[in-house]
């Protein structure tokens, strides 16, 4: 006789699924919904308080765009839905940009760059030979004049506006930077590795970045720093990926040919390249970057050495006979202005900060793009605080660098042969928004900080005999660009800043 065991089936216990929290990180998710209203508040504050019509136009359009983004976020149930990101980019960038181009109004840098393009084609040098006032100064390296060449070739057509080329260079560079930063994540996902996650799509990350007020405002009114930042991010992403070093060197060299603020990228990017691909690749990247920058800078510098030194070297240091209007009350400026011998102290502190960052690169070189971006942001932040002529607008450099390469909570696979090396994934929307929200609070606070009034120790020298007549003749040949039409008068209004237009004389047009 066989006995049969009775099996009693127990009902399966259902584990409740976790409640989804909007946003990339649970702790931050409850606050992400405040991001779009905060952007709208900042845009409205700017529209109400600024005396500059282009910035007022941007403030009104951006406030409406951010309000629509908040509505779209609520409808979709996700703070960073594609509809919300698109609404913010359209309202804060596209609409004001179209309106300002149609009206012929922009920030002063646009006119400076377009004039430099005409000068470069006519004389081989983008610099006014005998500048009399700050409106004649072009403190950018010769590569920046490339963005003004379309205006010189095609006249007043809207597509020749330098802002379009600034924005195109920035956005294309950031898209490629996101693509290369996500290379390891895509490879791991394709291989079916356990625990891999899809990074944030490049389109969403770039839309969120473009809609951030500190980026959207210069995209619409004109800001020369954006293409520099884009190429810097691309150079770091390429260096973190490894490779032969040629592509990373080209990107870093192109950034270095535009503005002095990109030169700190070279040691940081080369240190990262040495870790990810070896010293030979780093040497190849160094040679490529220096050659690319030299090809853009050296021929122009040799064409008119005196003008090059006066515009690009002496003016940013406040020693060219025309004082820089970049007078944000940061430590370097305050030292140089109010402390006897403060100019030397500020330069000494600047050199000491650069040396400290250089030593850190030798002692502990960065192994990921995120670590390199943080190191570069630290160095740039120190330099911007300690420069004798500086402005709050430079804060966009460390902000973008810190946010763009910050890895999410999910770690990515290694792409570096070095122990402990890991590749950062594409930036998560949650982290981008966290940095952006903190930056908005800083922008609103700094908007009401009055800039220190410039009181140089020595009176500004009068132009030498004949200089005024030469400048008058030059102005007749190269009149001030039509983009300054909205700034009704004085030069201090015409040379207003991008991020903090109502903060006194903190100006961008001729700041280095």
Overview of the structural elements:
With 512 residues, this protein is mainly α. 59% of the residues lie in helices and 0% in strands. It is built from 22 helices and no strands. The protein starts with 25 loop residues before the first helix and ends in an 18-residue tail after the last helix.
What sort of overall outline do the alpha carbons produce when their principal axes are compared? Answer: globular
How many distinct beta strands?
0
> Uncertain segments of ≥5 residues (pLDDT<50)?
1-5, 9-28, 187-197, 408-433, 443-465, 467-476, 480-512
What radius of gyration results from the CA coordinates? 25 Å
Largest sheet properties: none
Strand content: under 5%
Separate helix tally = 22
Integer average pLDDT: 74
Q: Structural class of the secondary structure composition?
A: mainly alpha
What string gives the helices and strands in order? HHHHHHHHHHHHHHHHHHHHHH
Please give the share of residues in helix: 55-70%
Distance between the termini: 99 Å
Give a topology summary.
Layout: H1 26-32, H2 35-49, H3 53-76, H4 82-103, H5 108-123, H6 149-154, H7 162-181, H8 183-190, H9 202-211, H10 213-221, H11 225-241, H12 246-256, H13 265-277, H14 279-303, H15 305-314, H16 331-338, H17 342-363, H18 369-386, H19 396-404, H20 429-447, H21 467-477, H22 491-494
Helix pairs in contact: 2-3, 2-20, 3-4, 3-10, 4-9, 4-10, 7-9, 7-11, 11-12, 11-13, 12-13, 12-14, 13-14, 13-18, 14-15, 16-17, 17-18, 18-19, 19-20
């Amino acid at each position: 006789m066989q006995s049969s065991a009775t099996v009693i089936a127990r009902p399966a216990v259902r584990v409740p699924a976790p409640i989804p929290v909007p946003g990339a990180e649970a702790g931050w998710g409850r606050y992400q919904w405040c991001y779009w209203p905060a952007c709208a508040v900042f845009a409205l504050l700017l529209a109400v308080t600024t005396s500059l019509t282009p910035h007022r136009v941007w403030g009104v359009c951006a406030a409406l765009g951010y309000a629509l983004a908040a509505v779209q976020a609520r409808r979709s149930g996700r703070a960073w839905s594609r509809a919300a990101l698109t609404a913010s980019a359209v309202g804060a960038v596209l609409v004001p940009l179209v309106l300002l181009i149609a009206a012929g109004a922009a920030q002063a840098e646009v006119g400076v760059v377009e004039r430099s393009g005409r000068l470069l084609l006519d004389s081989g040098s983008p610099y006014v030979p005998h500048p009399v006032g700050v409106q004649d100064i072009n403190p950018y390296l010769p590569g920046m004049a490339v963005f003004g060449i379309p205006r010189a070739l095609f006249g007043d057509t809207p597509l020749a506006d330098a802002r379009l080329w600034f924005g195109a260079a920035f956005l294309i560079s950031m898209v490629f930077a996101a693509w290369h930063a996500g290379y390891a994540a895509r490879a791991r996902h394709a291989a079916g590795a356990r625990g891999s996650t899809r990074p944030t799509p490049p389109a969403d990350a770039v839309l969120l970045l473009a809609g951030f007020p500190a980026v959207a405002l210069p995209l619409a009114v004109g800001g020369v720093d954006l293409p520099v930042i884009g190429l810097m991010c691309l150079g770091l992403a390429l260096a973190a990926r490894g490779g032969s070093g040629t592509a990373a060197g080209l990107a870093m060299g192109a950034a270095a040919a535009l503005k002095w603020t990109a030169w700190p990228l070279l040691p940081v990017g080369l240190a990262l390249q040495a870790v990810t691909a070896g010293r030979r690749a780093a040497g190849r990247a160094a040679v490529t970057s220096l050659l690319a920058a030299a090809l853009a800078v050296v021929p122009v510098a040799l064409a008119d050495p005196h003008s090059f030194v006066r515009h690009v070297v002496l003016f940013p240091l406040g020693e060219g006979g025309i004082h820089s209007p970049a007078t944000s009350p940061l430590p370097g400026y305050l030292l140089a202005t109010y402390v006897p011998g403060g100019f030397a102290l500020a330069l000494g502190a600047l050199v000491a900060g650069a040396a400290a960052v250089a030593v850190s690169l030798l002692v502990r070189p960065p192994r990921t793009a995120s670590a390199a971006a943080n190191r570069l942001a630290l160095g740039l932040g120190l330099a911007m605080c300690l420069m004798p002529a500086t402005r709050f607008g430079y804060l966009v450099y460390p902000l973008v660098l810190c946010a763009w390469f910050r890895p999410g909570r999910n770690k990515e696979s290694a792409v570096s042969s070095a122990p402990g090396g890991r590749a950062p994934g594409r930036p998560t929307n949650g982290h981008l928004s966290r940095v952006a929200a903190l930056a908005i609070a800083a922008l609103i606070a700094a908007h009401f900080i009055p800039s220190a009034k410039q009181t140089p120790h020595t009176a500004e020298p009068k132009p030498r005999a004949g200089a005024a007549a030469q400048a008058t003749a030059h102005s007749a040949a190269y009149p001030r660009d039509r983009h300054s039409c909205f700034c009704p008068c004085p030069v201090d209004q015409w040379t207003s800043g991008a991020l903090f237009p109502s903060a006194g004389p903190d100006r961008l047009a001729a700041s280095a």
